[in-house]
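Usage

Read records sequentially. Each one opens with the input sequence:
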Amino acid sequence: MRTDMVKSFDIRPKVAQKLKIEKKIEEAGPTPRKIRRPRRKWPKIAALMLLAIILLLWFISFYVLPEARIEVVARSEPVARDFEIRVDKNQAEPNFAELAIPGKILEVELEDTKTSAATGAKNIGQKASGFVYLYNFSKTTLILKAATTELSANGRKYFFTQDVANIRPTALIGLEDQEVDPSSLIPPVPVAAEAAGPEYNLPKNARLEISNEAFGQNPKTLYAVAEDISGGTTKEVKVVTQNDISRAYQSLSDDLIRRAKHELLEKYGAKALDNAMAADVLEPRASASAGTEASEFQVSAKVRVRAFVFDEREVKSIVVQRIKRLLPENKVLEEGESARFSTQFANVSLEQGLGILIARYEGRIIYQVDREGLVGKLKGKNVEEMKEILLSRPEVESAKIKFYPFWVKRAPKLAGKIKLEVTP
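and closes with the structure output:
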């Protein structure tokens, strides 16, 4: 039998085994106490940090981020006022109580030359000319003077170039169908048109009526027939007219007066009105006379302007102060480019240096908005409540309200988080 296959068994009693174990324990010494491990604290710290973060986010969401932006349009109303201001050369300085300002009499002299275009036209073409036969059915031999006789056809005039004498009566031949006896006619007489132009050309046998200062006009007994009237042509050139010269002087004078007014304002800071000015045109000269053939011409003149002037800034200051003085505390006068200001003398004496000026001011009055008072009433209100509060105020025309961020439904309770902007 193989020995490595033999199993051994302890057949001693269990009591003996227990004693043996106890003996080994005694030999090993006293039994050590069990060591307790320390418990970890990080779960509690993490929970506290998480709670703090949640509280911080809550505080930011409901107290830091919420914001109300309100745009309020203040109510306004137009204002128009007229004031009578006394302007006096003897007034030393503006007087608000008496509505009076000082005035001055100033004189400016300017000279200039202006080129103007001629508007007239003249036809320098050829005049139509030719010959006519004279028919005299009176029983008298006639003499027609060139200076006192006029021929006409189609509303146009023609004249003899010389006196015509010995115009004997015109004879007729035939018993029934009578015709003019050519031998009874005097030789054709030269005539010329009154003016140049092809419209004065007449065909052969065209009839012309004759009018004479002595004989008058009798178409049945005296008339002319054209043999040939031609040669009329047109050639127009520009001509200076008297109206052209007058308009040029007026235009130059107006320009000089405007420059004088501008010089008074720039040099002296003074406003000159048209009805408080006197202008004299001196030494007018024109490079062409009426009827001169020219496309343009020049006029020169010297203008002396005498004006009763004032400082418009002083007038405006008095008017604005007076309007502000009459406004209640909750209204202010809007000053700026939108306001319009005009002045006009109702009556003025340039010689005395005295006048009554009508000053008109047109602008807007803006209602004052109490920002702090409104913000205090809007804390914690929703949009509808805020609009009701704002639009119930007489000084508010309209309002736009926006909350930020998007989840905010009511205005913050902190006044600094309510942004109120007021526009006129």
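Summary fields computed downstream for this record:
- The CA atoms of residues 185 and 213 lie 23 Å apart.
- Residues 1-9 have pLDDT under 50 and may be disordered.
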